[in-house]
Design a protein that fits this description.
By secondary structure, the chain is of the alpha+beta class. It is about 35% helix and about 15% strand.
C-alpha cells in the first residue's frame, strides 16, 4: 500500500512538472512546495575579490603616472581570456584639457601597426600567394636592391636605408603626401647605399614594413586599407579600427580628421602635431585603433581566427640568431624576449602618439596602453604589471563573436 502511494505521488509530480511551461513563475513553483533559487545564489565567483584587488592595483599604477608624469591615454589588461581592467585617463585635447578620453577613443598606433602588416603577409602566405624567402623583386620588379627577401623585411634584416631620410632630402614639396609608390620610385631614382647586405645584420627600419604594405597591395590587387579592413579588422570584430589614408589627395590636409589628435611637449606646453606628408606611406604605421579592438585582435590570435597556430608560431620566433647588443629579438612584426620565450611585444612612437602592446602567451596575459602624447609611461611600469605573480586567474570561457568569411565562425 505504501509503495503504491509513493509511486502515485511520484507519477503526480512528474506529470505536474511536464505540464509546466519553460517560463514557470515563482508563484507556480511555490504552489508545488519548492523554493526557486537564482544561479547567483548557488554559484559564487571565487575570484571576485582577487579581480577587485587586481583592478585597484593597476588603477593605482596609472593614477600615479597621471598625477606625477601626466599620463594621458587608455589602458586594458586581460588575463585568461577575460578583461580584468580597462579605463581611460585624461583628455582627447591635451593642450586645452577638453574632451575626456573614453575606451572608444581611437589612437594612432605608430609602429604597433607593424604586427598587422605582418599578419596580412602571413595570410597571403597561408593562401599560397607568397613564400617568405621570395625575392622582393618577384612582386616589386623595379626594386633596385638584389637579394632582399620577404623574410628579411619581416625580421628587419634587409639592410635597406630609411625612406624617411631619403624623402626628407629628395621629396621636393612636403605639402604633397608621399605614397608607397612614390617611396619606391625615390629608391629607384636615387638608390641610396644599403646599410649592409641582405641578412647581414639586424637594423630596425620602417622601410621594411612600408615595402611589405606594397607587396600586400600588389599581390591582393586591393588597396592596403581595404585589405586590412576585409581580411583582418572585420573577421576579428575590430569595428573601431582603420588605416588612415590620404589616397587620391594631392594636397596634405593640415590635421588628421579621424581619431584623437597627438600632442608633442614643448617649453610652453603641449602642441597638437600637424599632419605629415609621410603619413601617406602605409604598412609601417598610420593604423588607428582602440584598446578594445586590440583585445579583439589578441583573442583572434589565440583562437586561430585569422591564422593557424603553426603560422603564428613562426611569427613569434626570433629572426636573428646572434644579437649581442640586446637581449631582445624580432619575429614577424613582434619583438621577442630572450628571458621569456612565450612573451612578445611591440612599442610605437610617431607624431604625438606612444603605444604599447604586450602579450605573455604562457600566462595568457595581455596589456595594451595607448597614449596621445609623445612622452608615454616608462615600459618598466608595464612589465611590473605583466610579471606580478599575484595576477593568476583560472581560465575563462570567452564569448567570441568573430565573423569569418560570409558566415559566423
Amino acid at each position: 500500500m505504501l509503495l503504491a502511494l509513493l509511486m502515485a505521488t511520484v507519477f503526480f509530480l512528474i506529470n505536474r512538472f511536464a505540464c509546466q511551461s519553460e517560463g514557470i513563475s515563482q508563484r507556480q513553483d511555490a504552489e508545488l512546495g519548492f523554493r526557486v533559487m537564482s544561479a547567483d545564489s548557488i554559484y559564487k565567483n571565487l575570484e571576485a575579490k582577487k579581480l577587485r584587488r587586481q583592478q585597484k592595483k593597476i588603477d593605482s599604477v596609472f593614477s600615479k603616472l597621471q598625477k606625477n608624469n601626466g599620463f594621458n591615454g587608455t589602458v586594458l589588461f586581460a588575463e585568461k581570456g577575460r578583461i580584468v581592467f580597462q579605463k581611460a585617463y585624461g583628455y582627447a585635447d591635451v593642450r586645452r584639457r577638453k574632451g575626456l578620453l573614453t575606451l572608444d577613443s581611437q589612437f594612432g598606433l605608430a609602429s604597433v601597426s607593424k604586427m598587422f602588416t605582418a599578419t596580412a603577409i602571413m595570410i597571403l602566405h597561408e593562401e599560397g600567394k607568397l613564400n617568405y624567402d621570395d625575392d622582393v623583386r618577384m612582386y616589386i620588379q623595379e626594386w633596385p636592391y638584389e637579394g632582399v627577401t620577404i623574410r628579411n623585411l619581416l625580421n628587419h634584416r634587409s639592410g635597406m636605408p630609411r625612406y624617411e631620410v631619403l624623402a626628407d632630402e629628395k621629396w621636393s614639396d612636403q605639402r604633397v603626401p608621399l605614397f608607397n609608390e612614390d617611396m619606391i620610385r625615390l629608391f629607384v631614382v636615387h638608390r641610396p647605399e644599403a646599410y649592409f647586405k641582405p641578412d647581414g645584420g639586424f637594423h630596425y627600419c620602417n622601410t621594411n614594413f612600408a615595402l611589405l604594405g606594397s607587396i600586400v597591395e600588389r599581390i591582393s590587387k586591393q588597396n592596403f586599407e581595404d585589405f586590412m579592413h576585409d581580411r583582418i579588422f572585420q573577421p576579428a570584430g575590430m569595428n573601431h579600427s582603420f588605416i588612415y589614408s590620404l589616397r587620391g589627395l594631392n594636397q596634405l590636409p593640415e590635421t588628421i580628421d579621424r581619431g584623437v589628435p597627438g600632442f608633442d611637449a614643448h617649453r610652453k606646453g603641449f602642441v597638437e602635431v600637424p599632419n605629415n606628408y609621410l603619413n601617406g606611406v602605409m604598412g609601417d604605421k598610420i593604423m588607428y585603433s582602440t584598446v578594445g579592438d586590440l583585445f579583439q585582435f589578441d583573442k583572434a590570435l589565440y583562437n586561430q581566427v585569422l591564422l593557424k597556430a603553426s603560422t603564428l608560431k613562426e611569427a613569434f620566433t626570433p629572426g636573428s640568431e646572434n644579437r649581442r647588443r640586446t637581449a631582445d629579438n624580432y619575429g614577424f612584426g613582434w619583438r621577442t624576449r630572450a628571458d621569456a620565450d612565450s612573451t612578445v611585444y611591440h612599442y610605437g612612437w610617431w607624431k604625438g602618439f606612444r603605444t604599447f602592446f604586450i602579450r605573455d602567451m604562457k600566462q595568457q596575459r595581455t596589456l595594451i596602453v595607448l597614449t596621445n602624447k609623445d612622452k608615454g609611461p616608462g615600459s618598466e611600469h608595464l612589465w611590473e604589471i605583466m610579471e606580478d605573480p599575484a595576477f593568476k586567474l583560472f581560465p575563462s570561457s570567452v564569448n567570441m563573436q568573430f565573423e569569418r568569411d560570409r558566415g559566423m565562425w
